[in-house]
Design goal:
By secondary structure, the protein is an alpha/beta fold. Helix 2 crosses helix 4. It has a domain of 169 residues: Rossmann fold, CATH 3.40.50. The strands form four sheets. A four-stranded parallel sheet has the order 3-8-11-12, sandwiched between helices. A three-stranded antiparallel sheet has the order 5-4-7, with no helix packed on it. A three-stranded mixed sheet has the order 6-9-10, with no helix packed on it. It is 32% helix and 18% strand. The radius of gyration is 20 Å and the shape is globular. Strand 11, helix 5 and strand 12 form a beta-alpha-beta unit. It contains seven helices and twelve strands.
Amino acid sequence: MQAKGYAVIAADFRTSTLETKTGKNAKKRTRQKTPKPEAKDHLTFNGDMEAIKRFLLVEHQKRHLNMRKMSIIASGMSGPLAVSFASRDWAKAPLGRNGNNVVIRPPNGIYWNRSRRLFDEIALDKLFGRFLWVARGQDVRTLILLSPERPHRAVALAKSVRFLNTVRQSQMRSLDRSLQLSVLSPAGTACLVCVGKSGSRAPVTKAKEIYEMFSRGNSRDVNLRFKAFPVKEQGTDLLGAVPQLEQDILDFLNQTIGQLKDPWRSRSTEN
């Protein structure tokens, strides 16, 4: 991906238990089966993702990348957590600064105008006064889920997907009034779900459930795709088992964030 011009951060969110053997193999440790997701995993994942976004913000301000075109590739139980994080990210209202250097933080949520443009500065001005609006979120534009699993009940997956679907059906206009940009681009998050269909039917069933949440009422949306491959491998193992999967992912990224009209702009309220 880096060779194709994408900035990549690889993070391992897997949890595992290590058991110490006794007797002859006292010093030998063996990796046990990954435990089922717990409520704390949701909080840990969101905290780690926010830390990654803070790092991306630093690189963004250096113009090393455009964090407005962020994609998350997640496997297994990290898939629903990524969906939840994307929903929280899109709910972040922008910061505002007026001519008197007064900075405000509106409540999170969606602000619309009559043209159903997302976070439109005119609609925000009517509510809070004339400010220079700077985005804090709305950055996750693509989700690629490899064999996603059912989440812990603490993860309100259906609610997160409904929110992302609402956002995706809108349009977003640039918030940078200082540049007088009027570029309109599709808002929200595109989604590609991949799974191996040989062997157990359970992974396919789980993956289809999540895909159908996104595609309900949007079956013709080209930014929503489901791919089932004739292999038994799941999760990140799909990348080794399906030679064309890496190219499929690159093609999906090129067709979504690669063609997205959302130019770089500063995320600082100080300029």
